[in-house]
Amino acid sequence: MGKEELLKLIPAVNDILSENKSEKIKNDYSRADLLEGIRYVTDNLRTKILADDFSETNFDQESLKAEKILDSVKIYLKNIYRPEMSPAINATGVVIHTNLGRSLLADSAAEAVNNVALHYSTLEINRDTGERGDRYSSVQDIIKKLTGAEASLVVNNNAAAVTLVLAAIAEDKEVVISRGELVEIGGSFRVPEVMEQSGARLVEVGSTNKVYLKDYLNAVTEETGAFLKVHTSNYRIQGFTATVEAEDLVNDAHQRDIPVIEDLGSGIIFDLQSYGLPYEPTVKESIDAGIDLVTFSGDKLLGGPQAGIIVGKKKYIKKLEHHPLLRALRVDKFTLAALEATLKLYRNFDDAVDKIPTLKMLTESAEKVMQRAEKLFSYLDEYDNFTLKIEKDTARIGGGSYPLTEIKTYVLTIDSELISSEELAYKLRQAEMPIFSRIKNQKLIIDLKTVQPAEIKLLAAEINQVLREEV
Q1: What does the DSSP 8-state code read for residue 12?
Q2: Tell me, what DSSP letter sits at residue 320?
Q3: 261 touches 293 (CB < 8 A)
Q4: How far apart are CA 31 and CA 460, in angstroms?
Q5: Sign of the CA dihedral with 139 first, then 140, 144, and 147 last
Q6: Which of 344, 250, 325, 294 is nearest to 149 (CA)?
Q7: 32 burial type by CB count under 10 A (0-12 exposed, 13-18 middle, 19+ buried)
Q8: What CATH class is the domain 89-97+362-470?
Q9: Distance, CA of 100 to CA of 361 (rounded, Å)
């Protein structure tokens, strides 16, 4: 049968509309959607038939029937209405996974977001007077309590926080920074580029691995606007190194009336060494050392929504509040609601560790992870052509935090000669709730460190479905 004959077999739109399936699709979506779907599918069929490399041998003529076309229309419309950003199962073992949305919110934070989404809110209004209020008042007191700072402010991410601080404190002035702290953050953004956008001028001192107090002081001129310290939270320089303690830098800077700014990056509120994690400087330690302004992220080690949190001296925070850039960088009601709920959990640190998912995953024992792995394994069927095993492995924290730290975990490994690990990973990502895994030694790895208890049954069902299709 030639191409002309095949094209004639494609039903007319009215003939397709007369099918019973058409009515159901129209009721589920709309007549306009149905017509769009029919045109899309039939146009694709024509394009395929008219292609130079068309092969009738490999072409399914059943696809030209009205019923089959309507099946394709249903798939097309389902994909059209499926959200591009959807819930996913993180089985990568990277706890703060930037590409998968970083930190999960605590239940109370998610509920707070839902409440302000469904109702008007007291975002920027004073309950007592009924007049306009302060957008940031809902979080300022709790931030000050947790960090010991005089004042605080919140913007939409940590890069924005650094930009605002430098623009308000050191625009058209020189900012002195150690060469070893010129970090690159996610998306290939670098500290020098952020500084340039703020209007501050970069002055590098020291070497990659060593910087001394005298390096900072020798760089001071009449144009010096600030000293900037950047915590290298996403990498480490080890071995023959030297850095300047915050207290020493602050003492000499303040004698010269120079403010000291610190970008803590992932920003941790409480020390987690008692849970087996290495030392990381806390926000309160920076404030206690006399740092004038400290910036850090809300959605990394804090375990809240994306936000850039700024804490420090009241006189400098006031400058930030009156800077026109703040308007462009301000956070919305959803961020503030989630952040307030997250921060309030920190009033009782045991509550925070138990209820903030990021902290819970970082501090839970390997035995708890093993229990999830065993539960998952119990839901899986046996397959002759697949080898499924529970094994020990190591997970990572991610999000530019604890770069050298590995956490004990348990994983499900899947190995087969029927299908490559890459193909298997692809199929799992196409699930209704996409599953993201990793590959190690040619085996697919499902890391239970980052799989939530409520996701176990769904994860097992999707794995079973994919493996059955390959048997």
Answers
A1: P
A2: H
A3: yes
A4: 38
A5: positive
A6: 294
A7: exposed
A8: alpha beta
A9: 16
Residue ranges of domains in the chain:
3-81, 89-97+362-470, 105-355
> For domain 105-355, is the CATH number 3.50.50.60?
no
For 203, the enclosing helix (H) or strand (E) is strand 201-205
For residue 86, give every residue at least 6 positions away whose Cβ sits within 8 Å of its Cβ, in sequence order, or none.
433, 434
Strand partners, 229: 262
Are 200 and 167 within 8 A, CB to CB?
yes
Q: How many CB atoms are closer than 10 A to CB 316?
A: 21
| Region for residue 172 given its phi and psi (left: phi exceeds 0; alpha: psi -120 to 50; beta: otherwise) | left
How many angstroms separate the Cα of 419 from the Cα of each of 336, 422, 445, 470?
Answer: 47, 8, 14, 8
For 304-359, how does the pLDDT look when each residue is reduced to its tens digit (9 = 90+)? Answer: 999 999 999 999 999 999 999 999 999 999 999 999 999 999 999 988 999 999 99
Orientation of helix 333-345 relative to helix 137-147, angle to 10°: 30
Q: Summarize pLDDT for 449-469 with one digit per residue, the tens.
A: 999 999 999 999 999 999 998
